[in-house]
Amino acid sequence: MFLVTLAEKGGGSEQIEFDKDEITIGRLDKNDICLNKGNVSKYHSKIVAKDGKFIVLDMKSTNGTFVNGRKIAGPQVIKPADKIFIGDYIINVEPLDEAGGGAEESAADEGYDEGYDEGEEEQYEEERFDEEPAAPAPAPMPVRAQPPAPAEAENSKKNMPASLAAALRRNKRKVDPRIERYTRLQKEIHDRLIEYLDLRRMDMDRLGDEELWRRTEKAIRDIIDQMDADSELPEDVDREELLTDVINEALGLGPLEAFLASEEISEIMVNHANQIYIEQRGQLTLSEKTFSSNQAVLGVIERIVAPIGRRIDESSPLVDARLKDGSRVNAIIPPLALKGPCITIRKFKKDALKIQDLIKYKTITAQMAEFLEMCVRARKNMVISGGTGSGKTTTLNIISSFIPEGERIITVEDAAELQLPQEHWVQLESRPANLEGKGAITIRDLVKNCLRMRPDRIVVGECRSGETLDMLQAMNTGHDGSLTTLHANTPRDAIARLETMVLMSGMELPVKAIREQIASAVHLIVQQTRFSDGTRKICFITEVSGMEVDIVTLQDIFYYKQDGFTEDNKVRGRFVASGFVPKFYDDLQRKGIPVNMSIFRED
User: Fold this and answer.
1) Three-class DSSP labels, 326-343
2) What does DSSP assign to residue 233?
3) Does the pTM exceed 0.90?
């Protein structure tokens, strides 16, 4: 009785318990462990338990069996720490009972060949070639283990160490059999497609996108037709949906294509191949769609990052990128992501939201919107503050649209996602380091370069580090009306965060000097919050009114007063005008510029 841990390179792992002395591994469903990949032979290897030892034996496979990176030539004893490599898979074997254990010596050193006839390997090979070839199973499982008999299983559970039993319980996942069957079918067609078309060697650049998709679609139809003729296709499967899912995974973004096409979905989170969450109307739900394997997720990540000149691999296992429509993408892969490659996509609507949309969704009132528009036209420097997912970038995009047409705007971002309507707009994007760790262009480098590009307005997608000092200096040196965002929970926290980020620039400035810079550079803080019901609201519009001794003084102009929750758990509250009129409104009035003073009076 032993435990096999099976992991796919670049993917997750699972554990399988066996209550027998010998198991076979190969591509056919007849094997105890079925690895349905092209680089695995039909009968690839077998593992034998004998006299408390485990022996691995290669069954004359095409690509060979490797232990700890070395190809084995005959039977070899393995210990629990050893890694067996078969195709794209890594296998570990360990005993389930405390009496069992691995051995460090090779099979020849232990005299294992005395109890094991090497001719048995050849005999086994001859026997299986004499058999009639079995028809492929309709939907072979990627990994299959023969379950022990009920009584034996009960005994094995009793004898199992508590720590191992707990680990196995954690690894058990409730999977809908219908979804699992569909995923296996999709993977089977995908694997046949690779053999049919040899996608990995096809000159995609020479073919062009349209021709590549046309050929691939025809190949998938041929495969599905053949499977249908061989009675391998379940009757309840929608052929067109299956074709779409396979072609999307082979050449597109897999199940993400449908989510990206839906206007109701705002965020997509791939935790691993079998778990995709989506955000609709502010609420997270688990999708029924899955990837066929973690390798398929890796393929999608490659297709996202390659066109924009970024990379992801073991040496650089995380990346920020964007899609063609401007949606923001973050990807992270093993060894940092333990369950498999993760993708997080924050979508942006094809039609950019306008200020009227924020009023309609009750993110802001008409009076607050009028005030913000006046602030932009009066060239006031603004910081939009909020937590992750609170809608800062959307608000920045909308507020930036108030900038007059005749002004030169330069935007600086990590992953370009702003969508401004103005024509005189220069868009800059940072660049990560290359394979040698050189050539990185940071946000700070771009902000410094902006000052040499004769900007009227500088818009920085997000201040995270030392670029904050350069941004404040720009705001203080004739570039009024600049905008940026940062992560903070309140307007007061935003001031503290600005201080911290200035110190990250490496300049050893006194705290008082930093606060004076902030007080003179930043005019307004717009604080945005995402509530538990998924709604997003601008909770504070706060003026930075100056300094008192060593403290930056703040004055709320508008704020959101929460009164509780409704019966359906929606946030209940109202927007309030504090009655305070910002200093610059008095200046505008004295200069004869028409302003609406009634917006500061509470109804």
Assistant:
1) CCEEEEECCCCCCCCCEE
2) S
3) no
Residue 407 corresponds to which tokens in the numbers above? 């002004």
Q: Please, how many CA atoms are within 13 Å of residue 169, restricted to the half-sphere of its CB? A: 8
In DSSP notation, 454-479 reads --SEEEES---STHHHHHHHHHHTT-
How many residues would you count in the chain?
A: 603
pLDDT in tens, 332-361: 998 888 888 999 998 877 677 889 999 998
Calpha distance 483→480 (Å, rounded): 9
pLDDT tens-digit series, residues 208-226: 667 777 888 888 888 888 8
3-state secondary structure of 510: coil
pLDDT > 60? residue 116: no
pLDDT of residue 127: 39
Written as six digits, the tokens of 155 are 């005994």
Distances (CA, A) of 600 to 27, 590, 596, 603: 73, 18, 9, 9
What's residue 497's pLDDT? 94
Q: How high is the pLDDT of residue 139?
A: 39
Q: How many CB atoms lie within 10 A of CB 150?
A: 8
Pairing of strands 53-58, 33-34: unpaired
Choose among 443, 438, 432: nearest CA to 469.
443
C-alpha closest to that of 89 among 26, 172, 18, 180: 26
**Residues β-bridged to residue 555:** 543
C-alpha–C-alpha distance, residues 37 and 476, integer Å:
62
Residue entry with tokens 């841990």: 5
